Amino acid sequence: MASVLHGWRAARVTPLGELHTPPRMTAVLLRLTVQVVLVASLWRGLYAHTGTTAGLSRDQAVTYAVLAVLASRLRELDQSAGRDMVLQHMHFGTIVYWYLRPLPPQRYYALRALGEQLYGLAWALGGYVVCLAAGVVEPPESAAVAGVFVVSMLLGQWVLYYVMLVLDQLCFFTIRNNSAMLILIFAQNLLSGVYAPLWFFPDWFITLSSFLPFQATLSVPLSIYVGRIELSDAGVQLVIQAAWVVVLALFTRWVWRRAARRVISQGG
Amino acid sequence: MIGSIEVRGLSRTFHTTVRRPGFAGALRSLVNPQKVAKHAVSDVTFSVAAGELLALLGPNGAGKSTTIKMLTGILTPTAGEARVAGVVPYEERERNARNIGTVFGQRTQLWWDLPVRESFAILRDIYEVPKAEHAARLKEFDELLDLSSFWDTRVRHLSLGQRVRSDLAAALLHDPPVVFLDEPTIGMDVVVKEQVREFLRHQVEERGRTVLLTTHDMTEVERLAERVVLINHGRLVLDGTLDEIRRKFGSTWQVRVTLADPHTEVGSLPGIALLRHEGPQAVFGPDGPDAPTVHQALKQVIERYEVTDLALDEADLEDVMRAAYVHAEASHAETAAEGA
């Protein structure tokens, strides 16, 4: 047990940093409120003269879009202000400390990310409860849908963790990852359905997207929640999500080893 | 041996790409990059006994930090071997991490957005230090470094002196027998520097820690180090006590005496040359490589002659090290010329 808990306080790094910076929390609250209001208004406006589009009713589309905004908070914390991005550690040379502690860097990274995602989850849950109470989002159709959604969301966040990790691992080889980060954030938002549900895109785009891990992060769980993916089809989607978890876990494990070799050949 | 450092024939070569000058050169470098080998550390051998403080000195780019990185396990040597507290650091990095504390003066290991005490708590958890032990050590460090006056402040708001004191405490909270300090007091004011020196002295003398220190601050070396290892161009130039180094390179001391009897016949003493003699005034200096230390010379002069007054001009360590660097540069140039 002690071994499992070893280094658990690393999970507190980002949430504590946020709690010690009230202006940042105020900014998140404001940004989230504005985004939810605008997104809900936009989708209601788009559906003003139509019934069902791309297989989604107005309420389904608004629910999907608002939940996408809330879910995007899960990993969008301001690490740069806390000088805690891998990019910054590489730049300032403080990455050496990750290799000078009796806690493997990959474990430290995972614990830190877990803390971030739990903290982001608190925000997302708070926003969800408010939006549900205000009637902005619809509740899930049944307890079964809610249960499958939770499992799918968990797997989606796991995939997202690995996607972010790949980006951070890039820093070990390129020192900078700004451009890659911009491309990835755009791709992640577009292909996961944050900008708009993937069901609105042409078939070729949906096919292309199915070969990438992004839709497994958000589009799949949200589509299950709003009922666009039926429970009968959800099993396949969960298997695909789990497969992405396995593939990305193996890939990032391999990259961690190469990153460590790079650090110890360059001396940080 | 617990706490000792053994370095045998340690070498590290980096392979870098040389960029050719000009546009055409840059294009050629792109298509056909030219790799060159840079020997950052070459065949360095030394040891540090448990409970000893050794200053690893050398000009910028001499290979000090590369050596420290190999000893901390974050860099693998190209050749040679190192053992830190009985562990080969680059082979058992995590085991080595429990035995060492490290401060890189310019880089902090603390979390920028968190109060110092939170950083300490995270490190306690990472190093699995029992709570009571952690609290006792924190109390001890607070008494020496006055940490409690700022440990609830976020790291981003600390002054450099406060930050380095916190980093020192962070590096030692898990009670490592070996400590590596890479220019820990760089940029700090004299008051804080003295506080840090006092802390280090306490850690060596009272806690028996082995410390390997790199610094450009000769006052620090003088106050703390028992022994000095000087490296230049990656090679070990000198390994000895401060007295030995002074003897070898610090040949500028002079003892000026006023003789009680101006007619005394004055001459050279073993290892001591008479430089000038006018009336009652006589000036002595070191003579040859076996010259005594300034303190021994003083004793000899007083024992031999009756003096009414004396003055001492001693080259400070900075002058001595400058002379050592210049000597090392000249030797390196000579070796390079012979090689060519």
Automatic annotation (TrEMBL), chain A:
**Ranges that cross the membrane:** 118-137, 143-167, 179-198, 238-256
InterPro entries (alphabetical): ABC-2_transporter-like (IPR010390)
Alphabetically list the UniProt keywords. Membrane, Transmembrane, Transmembrane helix
Q: Which Pfam families match?
A: ABC2_membrane_6 (PF06182)
By what name is this protein known? ABC transporter permease
Automatic annotation (TrEMBL), chain B:
Q: Where found?
A: Cell membrane
Return one GO MF term.
ATP hydrolysis activity
**Sorted alphabetically, which keywords does the UniProt record give?**
Antibiotic resistance, ATP-binding, Nucleotide-binding, Transport
Question: Can you list the GO cellular component terms from the UniProt entry?
Answer: plasma membrane
- The primary location reported for this protein is membrane
Q: What is the lineage of its organism?
A: Bacteria, Bacillati, Actinomycetota, Actinomycetes, Kitasatosporales
Name the record gives this protein: ABC transporter ATP-binding protein
Q: Which InterPro entries match?
A: AAA+_ATPase (IPR003593), ABC_transporter-like_ATP-bd (IPR003439), ABC_transporter_ATP-binding (IPR050763), P-loop_NTPase (IPR027417)
User: What membrane topology was assigned to this protein in its record?
Assistant: Peripheral membrane protein
Any idea where the ABC transporter domain is? 18-258
Which PANTHER family did the record assign?
ABC TRANSPORTER ATP-BINDING PROTEIN, ABC-TRANSPORT PROTEIN, ATP-BINDING COMPONENT
Q: Which GO terms describe its biological process?
A: response to antibiotic
